[in-house]
Design a protein that fits this description.
By secondary structure, this protein is α/β, with parallel strands linked by helices. Helices cover about 35% and strands about 20% of the residues.
Length: about 450
Protein backbone atom coordinates (compact mmCIF):
# COMPACT_ATOMS: atom_id res chain seq x y z
CA UNK A 1 0.00 0.00 0.00
CA UNK A 2 2.96 2.30 -0.60
CA UNK A 3 2.04 5.83 -1.67
CA UNK A 4 -1.64 5.33 -0.83
CA UNK A 5 -3.41 8.64 -0.28
CA UNK A 6 -5.35 9.06 2.96
CA UNK A 7 -7.80 11.82 3.92
CA UNK A 8 -8.40 12.46 7.63
CA UNK A 9 -11.58 14.02 9.03
CA UNK A 10 -11.29 15.16 12.66
CA UNK A 11 -14.53 15.78 14.58
CA UNK A 12 -15.13 17.06 18.09
CA UNK A 13 -12.83 18.85 20.49
CA UNK A 14 -9.20 20.04 20.27
CA UNK A 15 -8.14 16.94 22.23
CA UNK A 16 -9.48 14.82 19.39
CA UNK A 17 -7.72 17.06 16.89
CA UNK A 18 -4.38 16.31 18.54
CA UNK A 19 -5.08 12.57 18.18
CA UNK A 20 -5.78 13.13 14.47
CA UNK A 21 -2.51 15.05 14.10
CA UNK A 22 -0.59 12.21 15.78
CA UNK A 23 -2.24 9.60 13.52
CA UNK A 24 -1.45 11.71 10.45
CA UNK A 25 2.23 11.80 11.42
CA UNK A 26 2.35 8.05 12.08
CA UNK A 27 0.77 7.33 8.70
CA UNK A 28 3.01 9.78 6.86
CA UNK A 29 6.11 8.25 8.44
CA UNK A 30 4.86 4.83 7.32
CA UNK A 31 4.65 5.88 3.68
CA UNK A 32 1.10 7.13 3.31
CA UNK A 33 0.39 10.45 1.60
CA UNK A 34 -1.95 12.79 3.50
CA UNK A 35 -4.40 14.58 1.21
CA UNK A 36 -6.84 17.38 2.08
CA UNK A 37 -9.17 16.26 -0.74
CA UNK A 38 -11.39 13.26 0.09
CA UNK A 39 -12.20 12.67 -3.57
CA UNK A 40 -8.51 11.96 -4.20
CA UNK A 41 -8.12 9.56 -1.29
CA UNK A 42 -7.65 5.80 -1.46
CA UNK A 43 -8.46 5.69 2.25
CA UNK A 44 -10.69 7.92 4.36
CA UNK A 45 -10.22 8.05 8.13
CA UNK A 46 -12.84 9.73 10.34
CA UNK A 47 -11.80 10.44 13.95
CA UNK A 48 -15.13 10.67 15.77
CA UNK A 49 -16.70 12.24 18.84
CA UNK A 50 -19.46 10.84 21.05
CA UNK A 51 -19.63 13.36 23.89
CA UNK A 52 -23.28 14.37 23.44
CA UNK A 53 -26.08 13.50 21.02
CA UNK A 54 -25.31 16.26 18.46
CA UNK A 55 -21.68 15.08 18.35
CA UNK A 56 -22.79 11.50 17.73
CA UNK A 57 -25.19 12.65 15.03
CA UNK A 58 -22.44 14.67 13.34
CA UNK A 59 -20.15 11.63 13.42
CA UNK A 60 -22.79 9.30 11.96
CA UNK A 61 -23.72 11.83 9.27
CA UNK A 62 -20.06 12.18 8.27
CA UNK A 63 -19.62 8.40 8.16
CA UNK A 64 -22.54 7.99 5.77
CA UNK A 65 -21.40 10.95 3.67
CA UNK A 66 -17.96 9.41 3.24
CA UNK A 67 -19.51 5.98 2.68
CA UNK A 68 -21.32 7.42 -0.34
CA UNK A 69 -18.04 8.89 -1.55
CA UNK A 70 -16.42 5.48 -1.16
CA UNK A 71 -19.18 3.88 -3.21
CA UNK A 72 -19.06 6.46 -5.98
CA UNK A 73 -15.39 7.38 -6.13
CA UNK A 74 -11.80 6.31 -5.72
CA UNK A 75 -11.86 5.49 -2.00
CA UNK A 76 -11.19 1.84 -1.26
CA UNK A 77 -11.26 1.74 2.54
CA UNK A 78 -13.31 3.70 5.10
CA UNK A 79 -11.91 3.70 8.64
CA UNK A 80 -13.59 5.03 11.80
CA UNK A 81 -11.53 5.82 14.88
CA UNK A 82 -11.94 7.53 18.23
CA UNK A 83 -14.67 7.81 20.79
CA UNK A 84 -17.63 6.51 18.74
CA UNK A 85 -16.17 3.04 18.03
CA UNK A 86 -14.66 2.91 21.52
CA UNK A 87 -18.19 3.20 22.86
CA UNK A 88 -20.27 1.41 20.21
CA UNK A 89 -17.80 -0.75 18.28
CA UNK A 90 -19.79 -4.02 18.09
CA UNK A 91 -23.03 -2.21 17.26
CA UNK A 92 -21.40 -0.08 14.57
CA UNK A 93 -19.75 -3.08 12.96
CA UNK A 94 -23.16 -4.69 12.57
CA UNK A 95 -25.05 -1.57 11.50
CA UNK A 96 -22.54 0.03 9.10
CA UNK A 97 -21.05 -2.64 6.81
CA UNK A 98 -19.63 0.10 4.55
CA UNK A 99 -16.89 0.69 7.16
CA UNK A 100 -13.81 -1.49 6.75
CA UNK A 101 -12.16 -0.85 10.11
CA UNK A 102 -13.23 0.44 13.53
CA UNK A 103 -10.46 1.59 15.89
CA UNK A 104 -10.84 2.55 19.54
CA UNK A 105 -9.06 5.40 21.31
CA UNK A 106 -6.21 3.15 22.43
CA UNK A 107 -5.22 2.04 18.92
CA UNK A 108 -3.50 5.22 17.76
CA UNK A 109 0.06 3.77 17.85
CA UNK A 110 -1.06 0.75 15.81
CA UNK A 111 -2.99 2.56 13.09
CA UNK A 112 -0.52 2.15 10.21
CA UNK A 113 -0.12 -1.58 10.70
CA UNK A 114 -3.85 -2.15 11.05
CA UNK A 115 -4.58 -0.23 7.86
CA UNK A 116 -1.92 -2.17 5.94
CA UNK A 117 -3.53 -5.45 7.01
CA UNK A 118 -6.67 -4.44 5.10
CA UNK A 119 -4.97 -5.62 1.93
CA UNK A 120 -4.26 -9.02 3.47
CA UNK A 121 -6.12 -12.26 2.96
CA UNK A 122 -7.87 -12.02 6.34
CA UNK A 123 -9.00 -8.40 5.83
CA UNK A 124 -12.70 -9.24 6.14
CA UNK A 125 -12.49 -11.36 9.28
CA UNK A 126 -11.71 -8.75 11.92
CA UNK A 127 -13.12 -5.26 11.46
CA UNK A 128 -12.95 -3.89 15.04
CA UNK A 129 -10.00 -3.26 17.30
CA UNK A 130 -11.39 -1.85 20.56
CA UNK A 131 -9.07 -2.30 23.51
CA UNK A 132 -8.54 -0.45 26.77
CA UNK A 133 -8.58 3.35 26.38
CA UNK A 134 -5.10 3.69 27.83
CA UNK A 135 -3.06 5.51 25.16
CA UNK A 136 -1.17 8.59 26.31
CA UNK A 137 0.86 10.48 23.75
CA UNK A 138 4.30 11.84 24.56
CA UNK A 139 6.92 13.94 22.81
CA UNK A 140 8.22 10.92 20.89
CA UNK A 141 5.08 11.10 18.74
CA UNK A 142 5.32 13.64 15.94
CA UNK A 143 2.27 15.64 14.86
CA UNK A 144 1.24 17.05 11.51
CA UNK A 145 -0.38 20.26 12.70
CA UNK A 146 -3.77 21.05 11.21
CA UNK A 147 -4.00 24.38 13.02
CA UNK A 148 -2.43 27.56 11.59
CA UNK A 149 1.38 27.45 11.78
CA UNK A 150 1.57 29.98 14.62
CA UNK A 151 -0.67 28.09 17.10
CA UNK A 152 -1.07 24.58 18.45
CA UNK A 153 -3.07 22.74 21.04
CA UNK A 154 -1.05 20.95 23.71
CA UNK A 155 -2.52 17.91 25.48
CA UNK A 156 -1.10 17.75 28.99
CA UNK A 157 -3.18 14.81 30.24
CA UNK A 158 -5.65 12.21 29.02
CA UNK A 159 -8.76 10.68 30.57
CA UNK A 160 -10.78 11.79 33.57
CA UNK A 161 -11.47 10.43 37.05
CA UNK A 162 -14.30 12.79 38.04
CA UNK A 163 -17.25 10.62 36.94
CA UNK A 164 -19.81 13.38 36.48
CA UNK A 165 -23.18 11.64 36.27
CA UNK A 166 -23.96 12.84 32.73
CA UNK A 167 -20.56 12.20 31.12
CA UNK A 168 -19.20 9.26 29.13
CA UNK A 169 -15.59 10.49 28.98
CA UNK A 170 -14.23 8.02 31.60
CA UNK A 171 -15.81 5.20 29.57
CA UNK A 172 -14.18 6.17 26.28
CA UNK A 173 -10.97 7.85 27.46
CA UNK A 174 -10.15 6.05 30.71
CA UNK A 175 -8.89 7.39 34.01
CA UNK A 176 -6.70 10.48 34.39
CA UNK A 177 -3.16 10.04 33.04
CA UNK A 178 -0.85 13.06 33.21
CA UNK A 179 2.23 13.53 31.06
CA UNK A 180 5.55 14.28 32.77
CA UNK A 181 6.46 17.98 32.94
CA UNK A 182 9.76 17.46 31.14
CA UNK A 183 8.07 15.63 28.28
CA UNK A 184 5.50 18.41 27.81
CA UNK A 185 8.25 21.04 27.84
CA UNK A 186 10.17 19.02 25.25
CA UNK A 187 7.17 18.94 22.90
CA UNK A 188 6.55 22.64 23.44
CA UNK A 189 10.15 23.46 22.53
CA UNK A 190 9.74 21.42 19.34
CA UNK A 191 6.57 23.36 18.53
CA UNK A 192 8.34 26.67 19.18
CA UNK A 193 11.16 25.62 16.85
CA UNK A 194 8.71 25.27 13.95
CA UNK A 195 7.18 28.71 14.54
CA UNK A 196 4.36 28.11 17.01
CA UNK A 197 3.76 31.23 19.10
CA UNK A 198 0.50 30.38 20.89
CA UNK A 199 -0.04 27.12 22.76
CA UNK A 200 -3.43 26.18 24.16
CA UNK A 201 -3.41 23.73 27.06
CA UNK A 202 -6.03 21.00 26.87
CA UNK A 203 -7.06 17.93 28.84
CA UNK A 204 -10.38 16.61 30.06
CA UNK A 205 -9.59 18.72 33.14
CA UNK A 206 -6.40 20.76 33.07
CA UNK A 207 -6.59 21.58 36.78
CA UNK A 208 -6.31 17.84 37.58
CA UNK A 209 -2.90 17.82 35.92
CA UNK A 210 -0.20 16.09 37.98
CA UNK A 211 -2.55 14.58 40.55
CA UNK A 212 -1.52 11.08 39.47
CA UNK A 213 2.21 11.81 39.23
CA UNK A 214 4.83 11.35 41.91
CA UNK A 215 6.48 14.48 43.23
CA UNK A 216 5.20 18.03 42.97
CA UNK A 217 4.01 18.31 39.38
CA UNK A 218 1.16 20.80 39.27
CA UNK A 219 -0.47 22.95 36.63
CA UNK A 220 1.19 26.03 38.13
CA UNK A 221 4.69 24.53 37.92
CA UNK A 222 3.99 23.34 34.38
CA UNK A 223 2.83 26.79 33.27
CA UNK A 224 5.96 28.39 34.70
CA UNK A 225 8.07 25.95 32.76
CA UNK A 226 6.17 26.61 29.56
CA UNK A 227 6.58 30.36 30.00
CA UNK A 228 10.36 29.95 30.02
CA UNK A 229 10.49 28.50 26.49
CA UNK A 230 11.83 30.91 23.89
CA UNK A 231 9.54 31.56 20.94
CA UNK A 232 6.30 30.92 22.80
CA UNK A 233 4.44 34.21 23.19
CA UNK A 234 0.97 33.22 24.43
CA UNK A 235 -0.11 30.35 26.70
CA UNK A 236 -3.86 29.77 26.97
CA UNK A 237 -5.68 27.69 29.58
CA UNK A 238 -8.82 25.67 28.81
CA UNK A 239 -11.00 23.15 30.72
CA UNK A 240 -10.35 24.25 34.31
CA UNK A 241 -12.60 22.59 36.89
CA UNK A 242 -13.78 25.41 39.18
CA UNK A 243 -13.11 23.88 42.60
CA UNK A 244 -9.57 22.94 41.55
CA UNK A 245 -8.51 26.44 40.51
CA UNK A 246 -5.99 27.29 43.22
CA UNK A 247 -4.61 30.64 44.29
CA UNK A 248 -1.23 29.42 43.01
CA UNK A 249 -2.66 28.92 39.51
CA UNK A 250 -4.17 32.41 39.54
CA UNK A 251 -0.98 33.99 40.88
CA UNK A 252 1.07 32.22 38.20
CA UNK A 253 -1.17 33.70 35.50
CA UNK A 254 -0.46 37.15 36.90
CA UNK A 255 3.28 36.59 37.34
CA UNK A 256 3.96 35.16 33.87
CA UNK A 257 3.31 37.70 31.12
CA UNK A 258 3.09 35.01 28.44
CA UNK A 259 0.05 33.41 30.07
CA UNK A 260 -3.16 34.87 28.66
CA UNK A 261 -5.40 36.56 31.20
CA UNK A 262 -8.13 34.18 30.15
CA UNK A 263 -9.63 31.22 32.00
CA UNK A 264 -12.15 28.68 30.73
CA UNK A 265 -14.23 27.59 33.77
CA UNK A 266 -17.01 25.11 32.84
CA UNK A 267 -19.38 25.49 35.79
CA UNK A 268 -22.28 23.54 34.15
CA UNK A 269 -24.87 24.81 36.68
CA UNK A 270 -25.25 26.86 39.84
CA UNK A 271 -28.17 25.21 41.66
CA UNK A 272 -26.80 23.06 44.51
CA UNK A 273 -29.31 20.23 43.99
CA UNK A 274 -28.44 20.03 40.30
CA UNK A 275 -24.70 20.18 41.02
CA UNK A 276 -25.06 17.32 43.49
CA UNK A 277 -27.11 15.29 41.01
CA UNK A 278 -24.44 15.95 38.38
CA UNK A 279 -21.83 14.65 40.84
CA UNK A 280 -19.94 17.91 40.47
CA UNK A 281 -17.54 18.72 43.30
CA UNK A 282 -18.11 21.97 45.13
CA UNK A 283 -21.16 24.14 45.65
CA UNK A 284 -22.76 27.24 44.23
CA UNK A 285 -20.91 29.30 46.82
CA UNK A 286 -17.51 27.77 46.01
CA UNK A 287 -18.09 28.51 42.31
CA UNK A 288 -18.96 32.12 43.08
CA UNK A 289 -15.93 32.38 45.36
CA UNK A 290 -13.45 31.19 42.73
CA UNK A 291 -14.91 33.58 40.15
CA UNK A 292 -14.59 36.46 42.61
CA UNK A 293 -11.04 35.41 43.54
CA UNK A 294 -10.07 35.10 39.86
CA UNK A 295 -11.17 38.65 39.19
CA UNK A 296 -9.50 39.98 42.34
CA UNK A 297 -6.12 38.34 41.66
CA UNK A 298 -6.13 38.87 37.86
CA UNK A 299 -7.44 42.34 37.00
CA UNK A 300 -9.14 42.34 33.62
CA UNK A 301 -9.25 38.55 33.33
CA UNK A 302 -11.60 37.22 30.64
CA UNK A 303 -13.76 34.38 31.91
CA UNK A 304 -15.48 31.78 29.72
CA UNK A 305 -17.90 29.14 30.94
CA UNK A 306 -20.10 26.37 29.62
CA UNK A 307 -23.48 25.38 31.01
CA UNK A 308 -25.92 22.49 30.75
CA UNK A 309 -29.64 23.29 30.63
CA UNK A 310 -32.46 20.80 30.94
CA UNK A 311 -30.67 18.42 33.31
CA UNK A 312 -33.11 15.98 34.97
CA UNK A 313 -34.88 17.75 37.82
CA UNK A 314 -34.14 21.25 36.53
CA UNK A 315 -37.40 22.91 37.50
CA UNK A 316 -38.30 26.41 36.29
CA UNK A 317 -37.12 27.72 39.66
CA UNK A 318 -33.73 26.01 39.34
CA UNK A 319 -33.36 27.28 35.79
CA UNK A 320 -34.18 30.81 36.92
CA UNK A 321 -31.48 30.49 39.56
CA UNK A 322 -29.01 29.72 36.77
CA UNK A 323 -30.27 32.62 34.68
CA UNK A 324 -29.87 35.06 37.59
CA UNK A 325 -26.36 33.76 38.15
CA UNK A 326 -25.49 34.54 34.52
CA UNK A 327 -26.90 38.06 34.86
CA UNK A 328 -24.97 38.70 38.07
CA UNK A 329 -21.65 37.09 37.06
CA UNK A 330 -21.41 38.55 33.55
CA UNK A 331 -19.04 36.08 31.89
CA UNK A 332 -17.07 37.44 28.97
CA UNK A 333 -17.84 34.32 26.92
CA UNK A 334 -20.41 31.59 27.43
CA UNK A 335 -21.64 28.43 25.71
CA UNK A 336 -24.73 26.35 26.49
CA UNK A 337 -25.30 22.63 25.94
CA UNK A 338 -28.70 21.04 26.06
CA UNK A 339 -28.57 18.03 28.40
CA UNK A 340 -28.05 14.83 26.42
CA UNK A 341 -29.44 11.62 27.93
CA UNK A 342 -26.46 9.32 27.42
CA UNK A 343 -26.93 5.60 27.96
CA UNK A 344 -24.53 4.11 30.46
CA UNK A 345 -24.52 7.22 32.65
CA UNK A 346 -26.25 7.62 36.00
CA UNK A 347 -28.09 10.75 34.89
CA UNK A 348 -29.81 8.86 32.06
CA UNK A 349 -31.82 6.91 34.64
CA UNK A 350 -32.84 9.91 36.73
CA UNK A 351 -36.52 10.89 36.99
CA UNK A 352 -37.98 14.21 35.86
CA UNK A 353 -36.32 14.34 32.45
CA UNK A 354 -36.90 17.68 30.70
CA UNK A 355 -38.49 17.82 27.22
CA UNK A 356 -36.39 18.76 24.19
CA UNK A 357 -38.64 21.75 23.55
CA UNK A 358 -38.05 23.06 27.06
CA UNK A 359 -34.29 22.52 26.78
CA UNK A 360 -34.20 24.49 23.53
CA UNK A 361 -36.22 27.33 25.02
CA UNK A 362 -33.98 27.54 28.07
CA UNK A 363 -30.85 27.50 25.94
CA UNK A 364 -32.21 30.34 23.82
CA UNK A 365 -33.12 32.40 26.90
CA UNK A 366 -29.59 32.18 28.28
CA UNK A 367 -27.92 32.91 24.96
CA UNK A 368 -30.14 35.96 24.41
CA UNK A 369 -29.18 37.24 27.86
CA UNK A 370 -25.52 36.53 27.17
CA UNK A 371 -25.63 38.45 23.89
CA UNK A 372 -26.65 41.56 25.87
CA UNK A 373 -23.89 40.98 28.42
CA UNK A 374 -21.26 40.33 25.72
CA UNK A 375 -22.26 43.50 23.85
CA UNK A 376 -21.96 45.63 26.99
CA UNK A 377 -18.58 44.11 27.93
CA UNK A 378 -17.23 44.57 24.40
CA UNK A 379 -18.46 48.17 24.30
CA UNK A 380 -16.58 48.84 27.54
CA UNK A 381 -13.33 47.83 25.80
CA UNK A 382 -13.58 50.71 23.31
CA UNK A 383 -10.47 52.88 23.51
CA UNK A 384 -8.33 50.27 25.27
CA UNK A 385 -5.09 48.92 23.80
CA UNK A 386 -4.38 45.19 23.47
CA UNK A 387 -2.02 42.75 21.81
CA UNK A 388 -3.55 41.00 18.81
CA UNK A 389 -2.32 37.94 16.95
CA UNK A 390 -2.94 38.27 13.21
CA UNK A 391 -4.71 35.29 11.61
CA UNK A 392 -5.64 36.20 8.04
CA UNK A 393 -6.72 38.92 5.62
CA UNK A 394 -10.09 40.55 6.22
CA UNK A 395 -12.88 40.86 3.66
CA UNK A 396 -14.64 43.59 5.66
CA UNK A 397 -14.15 47.07 4.14
CA UNK A 398 -11.97 49.30 6.31
CA UNK A 399 -10.27 46.41 8.08
CA UNK A 400 -7.22 44.76 6.56
CA UNK A 401 -6.81 41.74 8.85
CA UNK A 402 -8.62 39.39 11.23
CA UNK A 403 -7.03 38.41 14.51
CA UNK A 404 -7.64 37.59 18.14
CA UNK A 405 -6.88 39.26 21.45
CA UNK A 406 -5.66 37.29 24.45
CA UNK A 407 -9.29 37.35 25.61
CA UNK A 408 -10.42 35.47 22.47
CA UNK A 409 -9.80 31.75 22.08
CA UNK A 410 -9.89 30.34 18.53
CA UNK A 411 -13.14 28.87 17.20
CA UNK A 412 -15.16 29.31 20.40
CA UNK A 413 -15.00 33.09 20.96
CA UNK A 414 -15.30 36.09 18.67
CA UNK A 415 -12.55 37.70 16.60
CA UNK A 416 -11.09 41.18 16.20
CA UNK A 417 -11.00 42.99 12.86
CA UNK A 418 -8.07 45.36 12.67
CA UNK A 419 -6.86 47.99 10.23
CA UNK A 420 -3.08 47.62 10.06
CA UNK A 421 -0.06 47.74 7.81
CA UNK A 422 0.76 44.60 5.83
CA UNK A 423 1.08 41.69 8.27
CA UNK A 424 1.83 37.97 8.19
CA UNK A 425 -0.33 35.40 10.02
CA UNK A 426 1.16 34.94 13.47
CA UNK A 427 2.40 38.51 13.81
CA UNK A 428 1.58 39.99 17.22
CA UNK A 429 1.01 43.74 17.28
CA UNK A 430 -0.72 46.33 19.44
CA UNK A 431 -4.15 47.65 18.54
CA UNK A 432 -6.73 50.04 19.94
CA UNK A 433 -10.37 48.93 20.08
CA UNK A 434 -12.51 51.40 18.13
CA UNK A 435 -15.93 49.70 18.18
CA UNK A 436 -17.66 46.44 19.05
CA UNK A 437 -20.72 44.28 18.53
CA UNK A 438 -22.08 41.31 20.50
CA UNK A 439 -19.19 38.97 19.83
CA UNK A 440 -16.58 40.68 17.64
CA UNK A 441 -14.31 43.69 18.11
CA UNK A 442 -12.94 46.28 15.67
CA UNK A 443 -9.57 47.95 16.05
CA UNK A 444 -6.70 49.90 14.54
CA UNK A 445 -2.99 49.29 14.81
CA UNK A 446 -1.02 51.47 17.23
CA UNK A 447 2.69 51.81 17.86
CA UNK A 448 4.33 49.48 20.37
Amino acid sequence: MEKKKIHIVSLGCPKNLIDSEVMAAILFKDGFQITPRPEEADIILINTCTFVLPAKEESIDEIFRMARMKKEGKCRYLIISGCLPQRYGAILEKEIPEVDLFLGTGEIPNIAGLIRKLDGKDSGTHRSFIGKPDFLMDSSYSRILSTPSYMAYLKIAEGCSNHCSYCVIPLVRGRLRSREVGDILKETALLANVGVKEIILTAQETTAYGRDLKGKSTLATLMKGLASIDGIRWIRLLYTYPVNITSKILETIVEEKKICKYIDIPVQHIDDDILKSMNRKGSSQSIKDIIRKSREIIPGVALRTSLIVGFPGETPEKFNRLLEFIKETRFDHLGVFKYSQEEGTKAAKLPFQVSEEEKEERRNIIMEEQSIISYEINQSLTGSVHEIIIEEKSDIPGYTHVGRLQRQSPDIDGVTYVNAQEKTPGDIINCRITSADEYDLYAEEVGS
